[in-house]
Structures are given as C-alpha cells and as structure tokens.
Amino acid sequence: MTVFLQGVYEGIINGSILALIAMGIALVWGVMNILSFSQGEFLMLGMFVSYYANRYLGLDPIVAMPLSAGALFLLGIVIYKLIISRALRGPILSQRLITFALSMVLVYSAQMFFGAEYKQLVNPVIFSGTIDLGFITIAKQKLVPFILALLVAGLLFLFLNRTRMGKAIQATSMDRYAAGLVGINPDRSYTIAFAMASAVAGAAGCALTYYYYMFPNVGATFQLWGFIAVAMGGFGSVTGAFLSGLVMGLADTLTGLYVNTAIKYIGVCVVFLVTVSFRPKGIFGK
Amino acid sequence: MKKLSYKKLLLCAGILVILIVLPLIFNTAFSHHIMTMMCIWALLGMGWNFIGGYAGQISNGHAIYYAFGAYTNAMLLQWFNLSPWIAMWIGCLLSAGIAFLIGKGLLRFRGHVFAIATMAVAECVRLIFINTKAIGGATGVYIFNAELDPALYMQFTDTKTYVYLYMAFVVAVLLFVRWLNTTKFCYYLRAINGNETAAESAGINAANYKLWAYMLSAAIVSLAGSLYMQFMRYTDPSMILTSNISMMIVLVTVMGGVGTVYGPLIGAIVLTYISEYTRVYLSHYNGLDMVIYGVLVILIVLFIPDGLISIPGRIRKHREHKAAVKEAPAK
Amino acid sequence: MLKVEHVQTGYDGVPVVHDASLQVNQGTIVALVGSNGSGKTSLLRAITGTLPVMRGNITYKGQSIVGMKSYKLLDMGISMVPEGRHLFGKMSVRDNLMMGAYTVRDKAEIEKRLRFVFQLLPRVEERQKQQADTLSGGEQQMVAIARGLMASPELLILDEPSLGLMPKLVTEIFEFIRRIKDAGVTIIIVEQNAMATLEMSDYAYVMQNGETILEGTGQDLLADEQVKKAYLGG
User: Fold this and answer.
1) Nearest-CA distance from A153 to chain C in Å?
2) Rounded to whole angstroms, how far apart are CA atoms B192 and B199?
C-alpha cells in the first residue's frame, strides 16, 4: 500500500513537470495554432540556467527560477520576432518543421556550449531532506515542481481571463482579424503568448534540476509526453493541459511500478488514441 | 507505347550519362557514401510524399517503416539466410500490412492530432524494438559477413556498385511516381487534399484512398530501409527509430517541394549534401554541424516555403507579374 | 468628413478598384451599393488600411489616413463593423463589447459607453452574459454593431450588415442604424440590399466593376432608371 501511495506522490510530481510543459504547448497551440517543438528545449535551457547559477553563483534553483523565467521570456520574444512570426505567414507544415529545426539548433548549441555530459547540481541547496509522513516520504525538493505547477496554472488562468492583455490574447486566438479591428495588436499578443510559454518552461526546468540530470537532449521525452497531454486535455485549454499533464504523470509512474517502459508507453498511447477518437478536440477542447 | 520525341530522348540520354559518370568523377568512398545516402533519402522522401504531400496527412512517424524495412532484411538473413533481394519485398509487404493497421486507427485524425498520434506510435515502436532481445534490443543488428556472395546478398565491396544500384532504384521509383501522378489515384488524392468533404460528395471514398496512400508510402519507405541496411550493414533503434529521423523524412520532402514529383529528390540531394558535409568538416566542434544544419533548414523553409523546386517557377511568375502590373494602369 | 478621391486598390498588385470617389458629410448616412464583386468591400478595406492604396487619396477631416493601422483609426474616431460579424465567439457578449473598447483604459469611460450602447440596443443588454456564438444571426449582428460603437466613433463603417438575415430582421437592424445616426454618429453603409439601404440613406454611391459610376441622394437613386433596372428588379 505504501508503495502505491509513494507512487501516487511521485506520479503527481512527475505530472507537475508534464503539466508545466503541456501548459506552454497548449498556450502556443491555442493562440497561434502552432505545434511548438521547442518547448522541451526551453525546459532544458531553464535547467542549464539553474545549473550555472548554482555552480558559479551558489544560487539555489528556486532563487534562480525568476532569473530563468526572465531569461527565457526574453529568448522567447527574440525567437518569436525573428523566426516564428515569419513562419506563421507560411504553410502549417513549414511551421512545424521550423520549430523542429529550431529545437535542433537549441539542443546542439547547448551541446556545443555546455557539453554533452550529464550534469547535476554541485552546490548545496536550501531544500534538502525529507518529511516523513509515516506512510510516505516526501522529499522537500520534489514539492517544488508541484507548487510551481499549481502556481503557474492559477496565474495563467487569472491572466488569460481577468486581465486586459490576457483577454486580448484570447480574442486574437479566436479571431485575429476582428482583434485587429478593435485595436489589439495581434502580433504583440502572439509574442507575449509565446514568450510566456517559454518562460513557464524555463521555470519548470529550474524545478527539475533538484532531482533530474541535465543534458542537452533532456527535453525530448517531456516534449512528446507534453504533446500527448495537450492533445488529450484539449488544445487551446490551458487548464485542460494542466489536469491532463498531472493525470499522465500519475498514470506513467503508477503503471511503471508494475510494468516495463515499453508496455507502459503503449498503454498511455492506447488511452490517448481512445480518448481522442471519442473527443477529437480533447477532453476540455474548444 | 508513348512516342518519345527526339528532344526527350536526348535529355534522358544526357541524364543517364551524367549519372554514370558522376561516381567515376567523384571517386572517393566518401563521395560514394554521400551519393548512396542521397538515393536512400530520395526514396524516403518520395515514399512519404504520397501520404504527406498528395494526401495531405502529415505523418511524423514514418521511421517505423524505415526500421521495418531494415530489420526485415537483417532478421531474414540471420534466421533463414534469405537473400535481401527477396527480403526487401517481404519487408515492403510487412510494412504495408502494419501501415494498414496503423492507418486504420490513426487516419481518422487530422492536422496536429494526427501528427502527435503518429509520433506517439513511432515512439511505442521504438520502445518495443529496444525491449525485444530477439531482434537485438538496444544494441541493434549487424549483418556484415565477408563470406557471403556479394551479389546475391547485396554486400558489395566496391562502393560504386551501391551508387549505381541505388540510383537505378531511385530512377525506377521516380518513373513509377511520375506514372502514378497521371493516374486517377493521385488525382483523387489531390481532390481529397484540397477539400475532403467536397471530394466525398463527389463519390470519392476518402478514407480508402488515404489508407492506400499511407500503405504505399510505408512500402516505399520500407524499401529505402532495406537498402539502408544493406549499405550500412548495421543499425540500432537509436539510429533509425528516433523522432529526428521521422522529422527528417518530412523535411526532405518539404524542402524539395511537397506534393511534387521531383521535389523529394531535390530535397534529398540538397539536404544530404548539407548534412554530410557539415558532419565531416564541422563535427569536431561538438555539435556545430547540426546547429548549422538546423539554421540552414530554418532559412530555407522560411524563405522558400514551397520548396526548392518552386524556385524556377517563382522567378518566372515574378517576371510575369511585373509585366501585368505595368499593363494594368493602361485601363 | 471623409473624402475618398480616385482611389485604386487591389490584391498583390492587381487592381480590383480602379477609380472610386466618394464623400461623406458629418451626421449623414452614406450608402455604397453595388452587386457582388463590384469592389465595395475592397474599397472599405483600402479605407481601413487592410489593402494598399495604389493611387488616389483618402482624407479624414482633412488629414490623410492612407495606410493607417486600425488602432490609429480608432483614435481618430473611425470604427468598422466587418462583413460576417467576426465576433469573439467563445466570449460573452459583454466581453465582446469590452473588447470593442480595448484602447480605452479608463474604467468609468468604458462603463459610460456600455450604458450608451445598451440604451440604443436593449436586446444586447438582455443577452450580455450569453456566449456570443450561441446567439441568433440577427442578435450577433447587433452585438457586432454594438462592439463597433464601443469605440465611441464619429464615423461608423458597416460592411454588409444585412448579409444572411431575414427581411424582418433587416428592417430591425436598419431601424437601429437610424437610431445610431440620430445619436450623432456618421455612418457609411456598404450593402448589396439596395432598396432598403437607399430608402434609409441621405446620400449614396453606386459601384460597378471597381468604379463609382453613379451618385445622388437616396431618393434620387431610388427613382433612377439605371438603378431600378440593375438593382431593384426594374
């Protein structure tokens, strides 16, 4: 029983990272209808920011988080303005290939600058040790992703639904032409949406460094699972992506307790395909 | 038989001469390697083009069939000592069969969801391959055997032979594609791609045609996989079943010109050239080659979205357009 | 107020409108009628900056507005209600209206405008909590016009407001348009439905093949033989 509960706990943590990536993908997908293959790479970059902040400045990842989010926000703006905005004018197929090529550039640039070896945090961090609740043990560090995911989900929801800019972004995603007519700058909406997605991934990366190795290609698995989570949860729905990510993380860890990776993955795929067969727009899809 | 005009005959002869002479002029093993890979990627592109280009369903998981083609060759050789000349066709059939199953399940989805579904399935297959010891698991398969008859078992010592043989395959498939392009099959596919509901109301069973296109694309990609296996003589899931490979198959076609007959060929030539040269001359900078590759891809896809094959057409249109604008004010 | 002088516009360098001229005086309803493909919508797009002006000039209160972006036009007091409504479907009616006043930061001002719009179009107030794409065609059109009014424009441009609506609804919408004019807003209305539009307009222009071929008061044109034959069924 304890194994199961521990699995639930681990699954939620795992799911939190997925949820964070999925929310970024959902945001970009919902607003610009683009499948961003680079979200996983933004996660990876966030991890590296955290690593180097820790190594050279002795910063705890949680302190580095705003730094990472900020840096990736800026990077997101640059990438949007230089590449994505141009890509959006072309066919959808090209858009996907461009984000794919972009992810390649990011991964191998990281390899060039940071090296391909696996890295781990070197300097000690504030959050260490565990809380023993008797039936499960909670590593303090691992709470960070979960709290972050909740925070981000809440903030994004408030932003998109209660702020002027957030509503403008939603309006732009519903009808770009009309948004322009009422004075919204559609390009600005897209830029902010994209930059926010990359910032979220960056923050997620920081949270991940507590207990995960970092290497240039770390984003790849999370990326694919993120896509699946979003497709299941409903594209365009950030809350759907959040919930879906958590559920997938849970399913992943729990089934991983009993079956090996391949079967587990196939199981997830089957669930995914079945869900999308019945609800093509995902569970919460618009 | 079609009557061949004198001009066409001359053109064909000219191309034939170039193809024969090319491997002789660039006579290094490396050049032959590049030419062989160009042929393989051309086949991959031409295959994928049927489902991605003509039928408009963007599959991001074609590495599955690439792997099946390669592994069929390898395993049939290992288990039954079967010559690849036969094994490759078995591989095609097997891949088409698997494509039937996968296609039935997935082709109901469109756009982004289809793309994600194909990626997910491809990843499943990759994990299955890694976990199946019988076919080598993560360590892969290795078929080099110096004692086998080179001709019978397609393990040539002279790299030139590979080049000529694979060129022949490419030409054959290209002619096949050209012919298919004129048939009702492709015509219907284009109609479905343009507007599926309209095509259906005209009586075309879209689901069937898309399934056929998907199976055909799987078979051709599988063929490429078989040829790849014979050339490299070794492969493992991390080389042949990654999402990178699947995406590159898409890339080759799109960069050349998706939905066109010659596009994938051009895309294959240019892309292989770029990737091989950057790999050899820049790889000691620990990944710089891939960075350059990625940047070049971004630039080409951004600025030439219809593919390289559209360049002569665009130049012509630009000139015509300038003339039209000059005439208009005369109204 | 608005002067369009010998404008030529089109897509990708190929002109669709060759020579169009019109003038809109303050406080009037000016109609632009013509059959499908005559270039009416393209001319509107040229006025609102979506299409490039290849020749000619467009001035508003003496100032050239050629190529101005939407938010600048809104600042100047020009608001457009596009063909096909283009509502933000998943948002509530109220949110749609709030979006209409996007460029305004002052909450009090926005409330004032909301009340003004509700007073003019009570049906919109009734439906304000409803999701926009659940409304009927006529109600959606009213919301679209209301949204355009939220920008508190001096000049309101309506592109085919009666498109796809039942005749009874068309009468209702046109009644509202008259009320808007009475409230002091100058209106340009582009329509295929010539008869009802001409009846309501102070002045009108007829477009054909990309040119403004005829002009006159609404009543004059209603009586005109050419117009009668071409657009009013003889």
Assistant:
1) 20
2) 5
| pTM of the complete model | 0.87
Hey, what are A147's tokens?
A: 């709290």
> What tens digit of pLDDT does each residue of A143-189 get?
888 888 888 889 999 999 888 899 999 999 888 888 888 888 888 99
Express each pLDDT in B41-87 by its tens digit.
Answer: 999 999 999 998 888 888 999 999 999 999 998 888 888 888 888 89
Please, are residues B306 and B257 in contact by the beta-carbon 8 Å criterion? yes
Task: Provide ipTM, 2 decimals.
Answer: 0.86
> How far is the C-alpha of A223 from the C-alpha of A258, rounded, in Å?
24
Which chains does chain A touch, 3 or more C-beta pairs < 8 A? B, C
Please give the Cα distance from A31 to A29 (Å, whole number). Answer: 6
Is A75 in contact with A81 (CB distance < 8 Å)?
no
Residue C158 has pLDDT above 60, yes or no: yes
Please state the domain count of chain B. 1
Q: Is residue B215 part of a domain?
A: yes
Contact: C13, B325; criterion CB under 8 Å: yes
Enumerate domains of chain C plus CATH numbers.
1-77+154-234 (3.40.50.300), 85-152 (no CATH)
Short-list A199, A165, A187, CA closest to A70: A199
Q: Residues of chain C whose C-beta is under 8 A from some C-beta in A?
A: 48, 70-71, 74, 79-80, 82, 86-91, 95, 98-100, 102-103, 147, 151
Q: Is C187 exposed, middle or buried (0-12, 13-18, 19+ CB in 10 A)?
A: buried
The minimal CB distance from C70 to the residues A170, A181, A286 is found for A181
Q: Of all helices (H) and strands (E), which one includes residue C9?
A: strand C2-11
Q: Residue B217: pLDDT above 90?
A: yes
The residue type at B151 = A
H, E, C per residue of A37-90: CCHHHHHHHHHHHHHHHHHHHCCCHHHHHHHHHHHHHHHHHHHHHHHHHHHCCC
Domain assignment of residue B94, yes or no:
yes
The domain ranges of chain A are 17-218
Residue B202 lies in a domain: yes
Ramachandran region of residue A185, left (φ > 0), alpha (ψ -120 to 50) or beta?
A: beta
Reported confidence tier of residue B290, pLDDT bands at 50, 70, 90: confident
Angle at A14 between CA A13 and CA A18, to 5 degrees: 115
The whole-angstrom separation of Cα A15 and Cα A146 is 8
Q: Which residues pair with C80 in a beta bridge?
A: C157
The predicted pLDDT at position C231 comes to: 67
Domain that holds residue B90: 29-243
CA distance C211 to chain A (A): 26
Q: Do A214 and A118 touch, CB atoms closer than 8 A?
A: yes
pLDDT in tens, B1-13: 455 678 888 888 8
Residues of C with CB under 8 A from a CB of B: 12-15, 18, 55
User: By C-alpha distance, which of B218, A134, A47 is closest to A55?
Assistant: A47
Crossing angle for the helix pair A140-162 and A2-32, nearest 10 degrees?
30
| CA of B116 vs chain A CAs: smallest distance (Å) | 7
For B178, other C-beta atoms within 10 Å of its C-beta total 11
In whole angstroms, give the CA distance from residue B283 to residue B136: 29
User: What are the φ/ψ torsions at residue C7 (nearest 5 degrees)?
Assistant: -90, 140
Q: B258 lies in a domain?
A: no
In the numeric block, which tokens belong to residue B187? 């015509």
Q: CA of C8: which chain B residue's CA is closest?
A: B329
Exposure string (b/e) for A136-162, b if CB count within 10 Å is 16 or more?
beebebbbbbbebbeebbeebeebbee
Contacts of A77 (CB under 8 A, 6+ apart): A191, A194, A195
Instruction: Give the separation between CA B110 and CA B113, rounded to whole angstroms.
Output: 6
